[in-house]
Amino acid sequence: MTTKRNILIPEIKQKSVKELSDLTKTKKTILIVSIKDIPASQFQEIGKKLRGKAIVKVPKKNLIFRALDSSKNEKVKELKEHIKDSVAILFSDLDCFELAGELIRSKSPAKAKAGQEAPEDIEIQAGPTELVPGPAISELGALGIQIQIEKGKITIKEPKVIVAKGKKISQAAADLMSKLDIKPFSVGFIPLSAFDTQESKIYLEIVIDTEKTLENLKTSFGKSLAFAIEIGYPTQETIGFLISKAHLHAKALETLKPAKKKDEKVEDKVAKETENKQDNTSENKSGEENK
User: Fold this and answer.
1) Angle subtended at Cα 279 by Cα 273 and Cα 285, rounded to the nearest 5 degrees
2) What digits encode the pLDDT tens for the residues 28-65?
3) How far, in Å, CA of 53 to CA of 44, rounded?
4) Taking the C-alpha atoms of 104, 110, 116 and 118 in order, what is their torsion angle to the nearest 10 degrees?
5) Is the domain defined by 2-107+188-208 classed in CATH 3.40.50.300?
6) Across-strand partners of 185?
7) Which residues pair with 191 in a beta bridge?
8) pLDDT tens digit at each of 291 positions of the chain
9) For residues 140 and 134, what is the distance between their CA atoms, to the nearest angstrom?
10) Does the 122-186 domain belong in CATH 3.90.226.10?
11) How far apart are CA 67 and CA 80, in angstroms?
12) Quick one: three-class SS letters along the chain?
């Protein structure tokens, strides 16, 4: 029985190494991700979300090394330097950054633990809860949350921030969030390094922050739009603003025209009066000479 087991283990390892080796040759992207502290249930949930987009493998480190060593591509062997403990290896036909983006979208919400730092202000919203009067009343009161009893259940009267952003979560706050099913954290695969088999290129420190990227794009677009309008550069985005700007300038010029005409009339009137005075003076002089 023992002899049979000793024979089977190497065969299983060989099959595993061959499978990994074949994937390194046939897939566009090899992505190494950290799976540290991910509960088994959430690991399975993430795996389901990635189905059809990536093949997820969690082999032992030495098997990954053997598979990479068996590759004829010398560059892919450099991935070994970036493979640590608690990692999974993903194989996909997606671009490595596109796959990393999928990992961000596949993150699952997670409960808070005492001692963790709050990623944002953690606020308990006002409204009814499923908590019944009892120990929960004092637990809520200890965190400064005002309550009232309605239909035998606890209702929170007004919203209350129980942990500020960056502050450590207390055991009391963690317990309350668990009872209210509040999950302020998200867990998922964290990209560590990637290899593009088509370009034979390694990517390190892959950081995908969709919200920040969109915010930066919005800011850049706003600045460039304002500059384009200022210099009068016509594009599909600026043409409406430029037409409005031209219309405002035209109206401004129209308001100046009547004032100019009025000034001209005054000048003409003064000129005529001066001319008449000169004519009268000339006539008077002529009359005196004739006398």
Assistant:
1) 135
2) 999 999 898 888 888 888 888 899 999 999 988 888 88
3) 15
4) 70
5) no
6) 110
7) 33
8) 444 444 455 788 888 888 888 888 889 999 999 898 888 888 888 888 899 999 999 988 888 888 888 877 788 888 888 788 888 999 999 988 889 888 888 888 888 999 999 989 999 999 999 999 999 999 999 999 999 999 999 999 999 999 999 999 999 999 999 999 999 988 889 888 899 988 888 888 766 555 666 677 778 878 888 888 888 888 888 888 888 888 787 888 777 765 444 455 555 665 666 666 555 555 555 555 555
9) 11
10) no
11) 10
12) CHHHHHHHHHHHHHHHHHHHHHHHHHCCEEEEEECCCCCHHHHHHHHHHCCCCCEEECCCHHHHHHHHHCCCCCHHHHHHHHCCCCEEEEEECCCHHHHHHHHHHCCEEECCCCCCECCCCEEECCEECCCCCCHHHHHHHHCCCCEEEECCEEEECCCEEEECCCCECCHHHHHHHHHCCCCCEEECCEEEEEEECCCCEEEECCCCCHHHHHHHHHHHHHHHHHHHHHCCCCCCCCHHHHHHHHHHHHHHHHHHHHHHHHHHHHHHHHHHHHHHHHHHHHHHHHHHHHC
Question: Pick from 113, 117, 110: which is nearest to 171 by CA?
Answer: 113
Please list, in sequence order, all residues whose beta carbon lies within 8 angstroms of the beta carbon of residue 166, skipping any fewer than 6 positions away: 117, 118
C-alpha span between 97 and 166 (Å, rounded)? 29
Distance in angstroms (rounded) separating the CA atoms of residues 194 and 108: 22
270: amino acid identity, one letter: V
Identify residue 10 by its one-letter amino acid code. Answer: P
Beta-bridge partners for 195: 30, 202
- Exposure of 31 by Cβ count < 10 A (0-12 exposed, 13-18 middle, 19+ buried)? buried
